[in-house]
Every structure is written in C-alpha cells, then in structure tokens.
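If you are new to this repository, start here. Below is one unmodified record pulled from the training split, so you can see the exact layout before writing a loader.
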Amino acid sequence: PTPGIATPGTIAIDTSTSSATTPRRTEPVRAETDEARRAQDRSDLQRQTEEASRRAADALREGVRHATGNGVPVDHARALPLLETAAAAGRVEAMNWLGRLYAGGLGVTQDFAVARDWFLRAAKAGDTPSMAQLGQMYQRGQGVAQDYLTAREWFQRAADNGNIESIYGLGLLHYRGQGVAQDIAKAREFFERAAQAGHVQSMLNLAIAHKNGQGGPVDINKTIQWYETAAAADNPSAMNSLGVIYHNGEGIAKDPVKARSWYEKAIAGGNTLAVVNLAQLFNLNRGAGIPADPKRSATLLLTALKANNDVATQEFAGNLAKFSRQTRTEVKRELQRLGHYKGVVNDVWDAPSKVAVEAYRATAK
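And here is the target side for that same chain:
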C-alpha cells in the first residue's frame, strides 16, 4: 500500500519524520484559564464590596447630617431612608440612630417596639450606646414589659464598656431597689463613678445624698461641692439648690447675698422655682445686704405664675398667706396696672383678687 494512504481494514499512520508534530497540551492551558477567571471574580467581588461599603458610609454620613442638622436643616424624615440603607449594610451606628428616631417619634410615628428591635440588633453587634438604651427601655417598660433584671443586665454590659449613663442607671436601680436589693451606699458608689466622669444628674443625686445622710453621714460641705460642680456645668437646678442652702442656712450660716446671686443665675438658666425663691427672699428678708422689696417680690411671683410654676400656683391658691401684707398689696397693684383688677388695692386677698389672677393666667396662656 502507498505509505500514508489508508486501505480497507487498515489504519493510516504517517511515518514521515519531516511532518512529525508535538501532541497538544490542553489540560494545563485550561487550568491557567480557570485560575485567571477566579482571580477576575475575586477582583470583581472586592470591587463590589468596596463600592457597597462606600455607599453605606455615604448613606450613614448623610443620614446623620440630616438628623443632626450638620450644615443642613434638621430633617429626620429625610435621614430615615439613608440610615435604613446604612443599617441594611450592617452599620451599627445607623441601627442605633434608627432606634433613637423611632423611640423619639422623629420623622416617623413613635414606635418603641421597633426602636427596641433596632437597639437590640446594634447591641448584639457590640454597640455600647444601644446596650444602654435597652437598659433604659427595660427599666421604663418602653416597647417591652418592664423588667428590672433585664435592665440591670444591659446596664451592666454597657457599664463594663465605660458607658456613663449605664453606670448612673445601675445607681438608680440600687437606690430604688429595682432588680436588686435596695442599697443606698452602693448607689452612691455608682453615682460617684458617673459624677467623676461628668454626669450632672449623678452630681445632683450625690449632693442630695450627702445633704440627707443617705447611704452615709450628712456632709453639707460635700453637698455644696457637688452642687457647685453641677452649677459649673450650667445646671440651673444646682444653682437654685445652692441658693436655698444659703437662703435657709442649711448646715452653714445664712448668706442672703450668696442666695440672691445663685437664684439669679438659676433664673437666667430658666429655672422657674428660683423665681419663687427669690420672691421669698425679697418678701421679708432682714438679712444683711438684701433689704425687703415687696414690689420686686410681687413681680417675681407673677412671673413664676405666668410660667406655670407649680409652687407659685400653690402660693396663689393659698391666698399668698406666706407672703407679707406689703407683697400681697403690690401683687394687686400690678394686676390692676395690667388691667385685670378693678377693686381696692390692699392686702386683703378676696374674690376679686382671685378672679384677677385667673384673668392674668388666661392671658399668659
């Protein structure tokens, strides 16, 4: 047979050496192609992940900006979907913000149950502020059944991470005996820790505890110290309390001048109880440096009444019996000047006087 030409029943074999070829190596080429494809897939996935992370970060930043009014008007409704986008991408800060919006009814209908769910998601992801929020919700029974034991657990977890509000929360639970045996001394320890870290309400609680001897001996110096520390943090309640201490001479000598100074600072801070207290100071004070001023006392009383202060309301309901005849006369004179009182201006607190007061309160409202 002719070389290289197949005949029936034979297999053609090319025996020429000049045309010999190397067998094809298909398997290694396929492996290299698969590896390149996998590398490309990894690169695409990384790029997509980075893009998703960037979008989530942008959504969180813009959501917080609109929620806080940072460079834009506060707009909680606009912040909500942005924060939801960030939360869906796992941003725990966004989850915490959503809990706060739902708890406060900001840009959305108030819903404590939804707020609790967001806080729980964030807390499980390690967000300390959300742990503190959960402690408060269980303490108050917001969105959940009131449960002091669970409140304590969440407060403790957050406090272990240094959360000041939770340290204060543990103090309250021990002070009230909620979820734990009542222990005022232990409560003071928690308040002390929180106060040392700048927690103002803890400062006020410590001042009261030292003043009343709760959980330890009475110590008016520490009371004044903590009130002054809170006052330095611009707390009007502490300023008013200092005024009361110097006004009444509680554990120290009376000092009407200091009392007036603290009352006026508290009033500047919006404390309406200090208005009533200053009215009392000007009513019949015989202390050095502050002469009685019935007219000033009357003006202050009406100012406190206009602000709907409970103590002022009670004083008027009691016919201003705790105030001097001169002060009562000046109150009627001022009501007459304002057009509410038409009768004789004297110290007798009669029916027309009460009608005038109600007319004054109505115009204030």
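Two things worth knowing about this chain: The first helix runs from residue 26 to 68. The chain has 17 helices and no strands.
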